[in-house]
Amino acid sequence: MERIYLDHAATTPLHPVVIKEMMAVMESQYGNPSSIHSFGREARQILDETRQELADSIGAKPNNIILTSGGTEADNFAVIGYAETNRKKGKHIITTQVEHHAVLHSCQELEKRGFDVTYLPVDGEGLVKPEAIQDALREDTILVSVMFGNNEVGTIQPIAEIGQFLSSHQAAFHTDAVQAYGILRLNVDELKVDLLSVSAHKINGPKGLGFLYIRDGIALSPRSFGGDQERKRRAGTENVPAIAGFREAARIASEGLEEKQGIYQNFKIILIESLKKNEISFEVNGSLAKGLPHVLNLSFPGTNVEAMLVNLDLAGIAVSSGSACTAGSIDPSHVLVAMFGKDSERLKNSIRFSFGLNNTAEQIEKAAAETARIIKRLTRRQV
């Protein structure tokens, strides 16, 4: 049985070139980047080259890039680190109800420390209205955090528009770009963001690595203490092989970016048209016009998400009910709750398909046909 992986928004397979590079570094570059001898200098060169290429990929400078253990740490560092450092300017933070839990839980932690957080609602497509952010701004607002592309439904927020009007306010602007990086072309100056989070394992790089972009003049209190790594902002000996792999993954993602967008958009069309051909009833959660090209979240009336996931897995098809970070949770998707309300049937019947490396049009067609077969069987059983 062919296994088809359609859960790339959760994590991605390592690219063969990334594996080759990491293996080569593990075999030969074992020096500590902080050491001054030749072994250390060779390892330091890998760090410096990676930082430069990561900075180039978003239109930044190398000293703006802080390597982290992933998107969660980058989000935590941005939200908590900025708030704690700048609490004298105010204690008000604005975010949305559909953020990744790395941001939401950071905000909830800050509330325990005396900060006031406004969680803005979204519309039925998962979009936050820029004017809602403007209306929520106060003199004591110090941080606004809005994710670039949603990890569950793919909705792309109007980041550049938000960044434009925030440029005249004291509040720093953070965006979680974990799902967008490597899929969409990003430029921090055009977007006018002050902080931007990225994770390597979403772009066919290694797990346990990411980065936080920090604009010049933005001060953050460190989250870890020890050595002077990462310009004294993140202590700990760097994972050089993973960093080398991240560099390769970012390079590959950047070179084929526009081509990937077209391929993934075509996959959406294939899947949707196949379901229609099989007379399957469904609704799109999010927006086809304003969504990430690789994420498609569909609601199938009359089905149960748990039964669907089990049956698709038995058929060799890996999909998801939403965020991988809440897998196994009995709680409904907070994103779908924000979009449709806590009583909506979509909370119980929605599936996320997400595309990536090694997927083919034939796989998408097969997955769609198998999805249709399972839905017909499950709904017939309920009649």
Automatic annotation (TrEMBL):
The keyword Metal-binding applies. The keyword Metal-binding applies. Keywords: Iron, Iron-sulfur, Metal-binding, Pyridoxal phosphate, Transferase. PROSITE patterns: AA_TRANSFER_CLASS_5. InterPro entries: Aminotrans_V_dom (IPR000192), Aminotrans_V_PyrdxlP_BS (IPR020578), Cysteine_dSase (IPR016454), PyrdxlP-dep_Trfase (IPR015424), PyrdxlP-dep_Trfase_major (IPR015421), PyrdxlP-dep_Trfase_small (IPR015422). It catalyses: (sulfur carrier)-H + L-cysteine = (sulfur carrier)-SH + L-alanine. It comes from Mesobacillus foraminis. It is an enzyme of class 2 (transferase). Residues 4-366 form the Aminotransferase class V domain. Its cofactor is pyridoxal 5'-phosphate. This is cysteine desulfurase. Its EC number is 2.8.1.7. Belongs to the class-V pyridoxal-phosphate-dependent aminotransferase family. NifS/IscS subfamily. One of its GO terms (molecular function) is cysteine desulfurase activity.
